[in-house]
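lol forgot to send this yesterday, sorry. struct tokens for the thing we talked abt
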């Protein structure tokens, strides 16, 4: 049982490290968004994807361990969670699990906040771009055009060139 708990603590610490890296990447993404650095954003997204895959692997391992621990403690898996585990183990591991649980909760909350911020920045940027394109289309549609002979061409709509919204 102690070996399972030690493995669980190790996995949770690895997950925390990956969430810390995701958080730092999200802070970098905010700077990249504001700097309009699309190449940097693509690179960051690829790195985040790699980390997400690693987290998925760890999550699978963690789930298997939790299942084994719940069986060893004769607790139903459906309701078994980290808090319940902490309530049912030796003091030797309690403190470690409490600390890693708190660190994970805090980091995931911070990550969620920075991701919401980044999402809002992107959303506002797209709104601005769509507004600018709409006004540009309006200006182009109202433009007076002339043929080579100098006659006014009224039925040419340049706005059709920019009909797609982003």
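and heres what i got for the seq, position by position
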């Amino acid at each position: 049982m102690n070996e399972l708990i030690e493995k669980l603590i190790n996995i949770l610490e690895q997950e925390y490290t990956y969430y810390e890296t995701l958080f730092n990447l999200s802070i970098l993404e905010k700077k990249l968004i504001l700097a309009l650095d699309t190449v940097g954003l693509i690179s960051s997204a690829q790195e985040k994807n790699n980390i997400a895959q690693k987290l998925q692997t760890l999550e699978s391992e963690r789930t298997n361990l939790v299942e084994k621990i719940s069986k060893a403690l004769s607790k139903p898996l459906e309701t078994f969670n980290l808090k319940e585990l902490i309530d049912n183990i030796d003091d030797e591991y309690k403190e470690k699990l409490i600390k890693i649980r708190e660190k994970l909760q805090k980091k995931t909350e911070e990550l969620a906040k920075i991701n919401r911020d980044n999402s809002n920045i992107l959303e506002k940027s797209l709104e601005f771009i769509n507004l600018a394109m709409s006004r540009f289309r309006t200006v182009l549609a109202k433009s007076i055009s002339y043929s080579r002979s100098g006659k006014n061409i009224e039925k040419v709509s340049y706005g059709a060139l920019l009909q797609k919204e982003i």
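The longest helix spans residues 91-142. anyway ping me if u want another try
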